[in-house]
Amino acid sequence: MWWAVNTDGQRYREDPTVIEEGKPAPNFELSSDSGETVSLSDLRGKPVVLYFYPKDDTPGCTAQACGIRDVYGEFERAGAVVLGVSPDDERSHVKFKEKYELPFTLLADPDHSVAEEYGAWGEKSYAGKKYVGVKRSTFVIDADGNVKKVMHDVKPATHADDVLAALAD
What we know:
Strand order of the largest sheet: 4-3-7-6-5-10-11
Strand content: 25-35%
Shape: globular
Structural class: alpha+beta
Radius of gyration: 15 Å
Largest sheet: 7 strands, mixed
Distance between the termini: 33 Å
Order of helices and strands: EEEEEHHEHEHEEEEH
Oligomer: single chain
Number of strands: 11
Helix content: 25-40%
């Protein structure tokens, strides 16, 4: 594992390993908005949409989540389980989910260990300032637990349609 430090002294994983399409998805266990533990291995037999987003109730993350909500019936018809993951805690997820009537599970990754394992945590920049955080990324995992599609730098406005297209392939 490679670690780097940004200009603000924040440490982040700079690992050359990458999640690859066709390879098994790394298993994880995280707490959900309902307080239950969700394990990827428990979802075998169903496709899983695992999407990493920076923060509850922010403009881009809200657009992304509501985009999925608005076409959620299509995800259900595809048999897919949708899991949103951010560093926010369960309480924050409950408020976000209730406020926007989100029909899917939100998972808390406060130490960003799962985001790191999936390559969705690292250095970013905004308005010329560099910082460490969640890189908006999505992983479509097939019913056998293998990564079907890796999507980095996803756009909140088109995310739901892009993921549905990946599920249909």
